[in-house]
Design a protein that fits this description.
single chain; Arc Repressor Mutant, subunit A; Glutaredoxin; five-stranded mixed β-sheet; 9 helices; 41% helix; elongated; binds FE2/S2 (inorganic) cluster
């Protein structure tokens, strides 16, 4: 028998095909806000006009932010128009990169890292806590619309494993089942918990605090090699003169 967990995993994440729905089709009204048009203008200035297709990812990010963390089909079509590309050009990028959600997600889109360092440090226990507390499996959104859970590949904070990212922006690290529960409770109360390590350590410093380089080193930030060479030569000269004098006095 196929388990719920297997099915949720199978159909989670980025679907390869667009599924036509009442809220997501080519006729759904979409336009960028004035502010975002200004941002698009700023982005496009970075590229020569014949290479403006390079801005697809930037524009998808702008659309995703405007649409509460997902990119509707109509937004992709708008991007194609702005960049003078075929719609398929934009779909190809949006479906290739898993950071673009092509279906609505919860207010807190939890992207839990499941790659090896996080996995060996307890990512699966963290996942169980999220599933139990939010009543969802991977790829699902909670009934209250607050939480969506996705498992993602390494997010580059392995030294603070296990960790997760929320809405592609906020990072929470050094998670334990207890701190994970506290984070969920805080989000439920519409609070913004302190980002970063949840065990009180400073960024990626060891949990025991600093053991070396406790004070600023007493050395110049940059060495002047010309001056240094001069000093070495002068010292050598002085030593040779000293030696000469000593030999003369012996004689
Ligand atoms: S393995 Fe999880 S952040 Fe790298």
């Amino acid at each position: 028998m196929i388990s719920r967990r297997f099915l949720s995993r199978l159909f989670s994440g980025a679907l390869p095909n667009h599924r036509e729905t009442a809220y997501n089709n080519a006729n759904t009204p979409f336009d960028f806000t004035d502010e975002n048009y200004k941002e698009i203008e700023r982005v496009l200035k970075k590229y020569p006009p014949q290479y403006k297709r390079s801005a697809i990812i930037n524009l998808l990010y702008i659309a995703q932010k405007q649409c509460d963390n997902w990119v509707p089909l109509a937004a992709m079509n708008k991007i194609a128009k702005i960049l003078e590309l075929s719609e398929m050009d934009v779909y190809e990028v949006a479906t290739f990169y898993t950071m673009f959600n092509r279906e609505p997600v919860g207010k807190y889109h939890i992207q839990l890292c499941g790659t090896t360092p996080c996995m060996v440090c307890g990512a699966q226990e963290i996942k169980k806590v999220i599933e139990q507390e939010c009543g969802i499996l991977e790829g699902q959104t909670s009934k209250d619309g607050l939480f969506t859970l996705s498992e993602v590949e390494c997010l580059g904070a392995c030294v603070n494993a296990p960790m997760l990212q929320v809405n592609g922006e906020q990072i929470y690290e050094d998670l334990t089942p207890e701190s994970m529960r506290q984070l969920i409770q805080a989000w439920r109360k519409q609070e913004t918990p302190q980002e970063g390590p949840q065990v009180g350590r400073n960024l990626s410093e060891g949990v025991q605090g600093r053991t070396t380089l406790k004070t600023m080193p007493d050395t110049p930030k940059f060495r002047d090699f010309v001056k240094l060479k001069q000093e070495v030569e002068e010292k050598k000269k002085a030593e040779e003169e000293e030696k000469k004098k000593a030999e003369q006095s012996k004689a």
